[in-house]
Specification:
seven-stranded antiparallel beta sheet; two-stranded antiparallel sheet; alpha+beta; 9 strands; single chain; globular; 3 helices
């Protein structure tokens, strides 16, 4: 799934001029989505790697969808909330199923990935790259590759 930044939500008002940017996003730039979150109140979020290299969740209102391709590694995860309503997440299955108990207590992928050195690209040449970072790059690379293949196929069909 690929999205294009339409505006950057700031407080106060949002900037919508082409080329506007902050440390995370740039208006007009396209991004590949790594996870999609939907809350029962109708708010949709996209998780992507920002321009600073951080893994961040953004409100979907800032973007337009460029490609609806769903990566082969994604699965739908539903969560029952305390009030009896549900939230949904589309994300890599291996991220959802990842549990590390090395620290003495269970850590999910999302808990553990926030504990490592950022930006993650600093780990690329490090022989001590943590398993959670390897898993991040493995799934990110698959998602990016599949999106590119899908985009090329769409262009060839035109």
């Amino acid at each position: 799934m690929k999205i294009k930044c339409r505006k950057i939500l700031t407080s106060p008002p949002c900037r919508i001029d082409q080329g506007a940017q902050d440390e995370y996003l740039a208006v007009g730039r396209e991004y590949i989505v790594l996870c999609v979150y939907y809350e029962y109140n109708g708010i949709l979020y996209y998780q992507l790697e920002s321009d600073s290299g951080a893994l961040i969740i953004f409100e979907a209102d800032q973007f337009e969808v460029v490609s609806n391709y769903i990566p082969s590694c994604w699965e739908i995860e539903t969560n029952l909330l305390e009030d009896g309503k549900y939230s949904l997440k589309l994300s890599p299955k291996s991220w959802n199923n990842y549990i590390n108990c090395d620290s003495g207590y269970e850590m999910s992928f999302y808990e553990e990935i926030t504990e490592v050195r950022w930006p993650l690209t600093e780990w690329l040449d490090d022989p001590n790259m943590p398993e959670v970072v390897k898993l991040y790059f493995q799934e990110k690379d698959l998602i990016y590759r599949e999106e590119e293949e899908y985009s090329l196929k769409q262009l060839q069909q035109r």
